[in-house]
Design goal:
The protein is of the alpha/beta class. The chain has two domains: about 35-385, 3-Layer(aba) Sandwich (Alkaline Phosphatase, subunit A), CATH 3.40.720; about 390-460, Arylsulfatase, C-terminal domain (2-Layer Sandwich). It has eleven helices and 16 strands. The chain has helices at about 65-75, 90-95, 100-105, 130-135, 180-185, 210-225, 260-280, 320-325, 350-355, 375, 445-460, and strands at about 10, 20-25, 40-45, 75-80, 140-145, 165, 195-200, 200-205, 230-235, 285-295, 325-330, 340-345, 385-390, 395-400, 405-410, 420-430. Strand 14 and strand 15 (about 405-410) form a beta hairpin. The longest helix has 22 residues, at about 260-280. The structure holds magnesium ion.
Amino acid sequence: MKTKQPTRRAFIKTAGAGAAWFAVPRFLHASSSLNGNPSPNLIVIFCDDLGYGDLGVFGHPTIRTPHLDRMAHEGQKWTNFYAAASVCTPSRAAIMTGRLPIRSGMCSDQRRVLFPDSAGGLPSSEITIAEALKPKGYATACIGKWHLGHLPQFLPTNHGFDSYFGIPYSNDMDNTTKIGREAFWRPKTEYFNVPLMRNEEIIERPADQNTITKRYTEEAVKFIKENKEKPFFLYLAHNLPHVPLFTSDHFRNTSPRGLYGDVVEEIDWSVGRILETLKGESLDQNTMVVFTSDNGPWLTYDQHGGSAGLLREGKGCTFEGGMREPTIFRWPDHIKPGVVTDMGSTLDLLPTFCKLAGADAPEDRVIDGVDLRPALFGTGPGPRDLMFFYRGQQLYAVRKGEYKAHFTTELSYYKDNKKTYHDPPLLYHLGHDPSEKYDIAKDHPDVIADIRREVEKHEATLIPVEDQLAKRLVKINKQDG
Ligand code: MG
């Protein structure tokens, strides 16, 4: 049996419901350099725990997201786009560096993410998108949740960002109550003593989370307006809809989806404000905006968690619901509007952005990302054919083409920590079976053999590094002075 995957074609359609699918011939579209415009502005809007099925344009029946829906109509809706981990810290390390977190020490089998007592963070030897773009004169801002280390040496301002405004770790940390999960069902700002920082200073504690999305948006608009004369990179990482859910007065009790819907609809409003600002400042044609999320929905929080739509499982696991994200690219007059089914990943942003900016991507290390320009501009097939699915430091699954092999499975975060090993691995055809229901391993030993070879090749590139998530601050024992 042949092991070769069918030639992948870019099927593009208008994003509206009911539009017919059609294959668009590849065309040479105006790239930034061809346009005499070598340094486009780059904006990443990164959500926290937003599920694949949580936007109107990705099929949610009651969450209203008119701005994101329009963004998808005007740009590209990507239906096979992955975060590189199923929880916050490793996923953020990946988007910032273009490298799987196993290479930077930002994933662990001991602790899944960084906590307020963590002593580790993104090593200074790693090169972030902001650092890669700096030689090309980019102004850089990080607004929102960082979660790559809260100690000064790990903060965004020491990783290539000119400024930082946001919370250094998750909005559910520093829980001050004794009521456990009860605090999440009726969240109050004072229950979570999370600091709000500007650059390296704490300016508010606890952060008023009710107004946080609104304030991140105001900061983003201000940054865009202040830097419109030079190229800029804005990383706007909302800390919602991660639980506990907070929303401003204007959105509270307004969504048919309840509090979770209020929160997502406020993020949608924020996206609208960003796009409106770009238009108002005549930056629309010179700015690529990417919208995506760090991992899937936190299903164990019931109605306070989102939905992965037709995908299996959610946050914390390596089934599709844990890592496939609702993703939109928009860059008027540059990228062809439509639906892209090619594979992509947050890993790919660093190499793609470097190419768009004319900047050099790091060459002294393995970069797991690929340059997505062929898929964005329609000049060729999407270059990503492989995706590795890690849980902690363990490789659980691999996708090659439309086939995904699960060597180990484990359900979502907190739901069931029992590992199941599979030999032969479970095999799903994600094109036919996006919900990963029907194991076809016995019919495709050749595909499994091919994926095993990819695993061997991949593992040969790994170099042991220090586990940054396992390191804890030493508590000072008061009795010892
Ligand atoms: Mg998250």
